[in-house]
Amino acid sequence: MSIIHGQAFQLGDDVNTDIHCSSKYAPGKDSQFISTIAFEKLSSGFSGRLKLAQGGIIIAGEHFGINSSREQAIAILHLMQVRCILAPSFGRQFFRNAINNGLAILECDTSQILDGAELTIDLQTGIVQTNHHQTIQASLLPKEVLKIISMGGLIPFLNQHPDWNFAA
């Protein structure tokens, strides 16, 4: 899973996934329902567009996942078939939850990526290419983190590599 392809779906700065991707504000609703309304207050029809495209890549602004401590947000994003999230910065708890739950997440300048652009992301090199002939360099993730993401998260990784001894 070192190469990810998909359509860009744009969100703005300071997206709090506790508000937009959890049942905290929709008591009694399950994750499947939340995945159909996630980010609706930020971008009307967002989850429907993602579903129509059979998933994609979220392009966000600064501080994506700020104030987010709930792993449910990552489960919702997986249900929405989000393949990767690109943003200049992430809330640290969200960043760690994403890695622990096998969601690719890279920090880079997203200001020039257009909504709807087709992207190719090489997780090994951190290179993001658009169908508009743009090349963007994302911050590289350590090989251990890439391995965790490729295996679907920290628990599957530790089940196979409890001593962290693996060939990258």
From TrEMBL:
- The source's superkingdom equals Bacteria
Q: What is this protein called?
A: 3-isopropylmalate dehydratase
Q: Top EC class per UniProt?
A: lyase
Whose protein is this, by species? Polynucleobacter kasalickyi
Keywords carried by this UniProt record: Amino-acid biosynthesis, Branched-chain amino acid biosynthesis, Leucine biosynthesis, Lyase
> Which residues constitute the signal peptide according to the record?
none
Give any GO molecular function from the UniProt entry.
3-isopropylmalate dehydratase activity
The Aconitase A/isopropylmalate dehydratase small subunit swivel domain, residue ranges:
57-108
Gene Ontology BP terms: L-leucine biosynthetic process
Q: What is the lineage of its organism?
A: Bacteria, Pseudomonadati, Pseudomonadota, Betaproteobacteria, Burkholderiales
Pathway the protein takes part in: Amino-acid biosynthesis; L-leucine biosynthesis; L-leucine from 3-methyl-2-oxobutanoate: step 2/4
Q: What PANTHER family has UniProt attached to this entry?
A: 3-ISOPROPYLMALATE DEHYDRATASE SMALL SUBUNIT, 3-ISOPROPYLMALATE DEHYDRATASE SMALL SUBUNIT 2-RELATED-RELATED
The cross-references to InterPro entries, in alphabetical order and at most eight, read: Aconitase/3IPM_dehydase_swvl, AconitaseA/IPMdHydase_ssu_swvl, LeuD, LeuD_type2/HacB/DmdB
| Reactions catalysed | (2R,3S)-3-isopropylmalate = (2S)-2-isopropylmalate
* Enzyme Commission numbers on file: 4.2.1.33
